[in-house]
Amino acid sequence: MTHDRTFRRWICAVCAALSLGFSALDTAAREPGKLANVMILATGGTIAGSGATSTTTVGYTAATVGVARLIEAVPELKAAANVKGEQVFQIASENMNNDYWLKLAKRVNELLKQDDVDGIVITHGTDTIEETAYFLNLTVKSRKPVVIVGAMRPSTAISADGPINLYNATILAGSDAAVGKGVLVVLNDQINGARDVTKTNTANTDTFRSWELGFLGYMQNNQPYFYRQSTRKHTADTEFDVTNLDKLPDVDIVYGYANMNRIAVDAFVAAGDKGLVHAGVGDGSLARPAVEPALVEARKKGVVIVRSSRVGNGIVARNGEAKDDELDFVVSDTLNPQKARILLMLALTKTSDAKEIQRMFYTY
Among all residues, which ones are annotated catalytic? Predict the structure, then answer.
C-alpha cells in the first residue's frame, strides 16, 4: 500500500513536470545565492537613444548608445546577475527586417546552448518590439528565459525609463520563474507574453498591453510575480527551425478601409509575394466587389491568404465573413496583422497547404 502511494506521488510529480513543459529540465539548478549568468544583446532603439537636451523626449536620435555604456549606466546590474554584453546590430526598430530577425534568432540559439548562459536580455526599439518578440517566440529552441526590453524615453531624458526596465529585464532573465514561459516583454514593471503584447500608445510609458487577455505578471521589489501563462505552443515546442534559413518568404499586409480597391493586392502578387495578410475591417471582412475577387485570384495563383483584422481584439471567425473553406483561406485567430505575417512567413518555410497553415494558426 505504501509502495502504491509512493508510486502515485512519483507519477503526479512527472505529470506536473509535463504540464510545465519540463521547464526545470532546461536549466541547471544554481546554488542558493549564486547569481545567474545573463547575456545582454543590444540592437539599438530608444533605450539606446539620445536627445539634444535632458527634456528632449520627441525628436531624439535612436540607437546611439552602445551596449557597454548601457550596462555601465546601471551599476545595480552587478547585484542582479553576472552580465555580459554584445552589440548584435544597432538600428532604430522601424528599420527592423527579416535579415535582422534571422541573425538575432540564430545568435540567441547559439548562446542558449552554452552552459554559462542562464538567460538572455535583448534591448530593442519599441516600434517593432512585439514583432521581434513573436518571431523569437516561434524560433528560439530553448526554455531558458529570453526577455526583450525597451524604453519610451531616450537615455538622456530626465526621467528615462530605460535603466529600470533594463534592471527588471535582467532580474527576469535570470529567474527560474521565467523558465518555460516563452519570450517575454518587460517594460513599466509589467511582464507580457510575446504572442499577445502590442504597443497601444505612441508616447506613454504605459504603452505595452495584451489587451483583454492581460499581461502575465508584475515586476515588484526586485522579483517577478506570474499570474498566468500562454496556452499556445512556443520556443522549444514549435516546429520552426531557422538554423539553415538565409531568407524568409515574401509576405505583405493589405490594410482594409472604406472605399478600398484591389491595387495593393495586385501589386504584391505581381511582385512575387508567397502570402498576403488582409487586415480587414470588423471580423476580417472583405470588401466586395473590389477586394475579395483579387484575393480569390491570388489564391488560385498559389498565394496563401490570411484573413486578420485591423480591430486589434477578438477572434477572426473561420467561415464568418468569408467562405474560408470554399476559398481555401486561412484565418488569423487572435493574432494581429503584423504577427499573422510573421507566422505565415515561417509556415511557408514548411508548407503552402492552407489547411496545414490553418492548423499552425490555431497552435501558435
Answer: 46
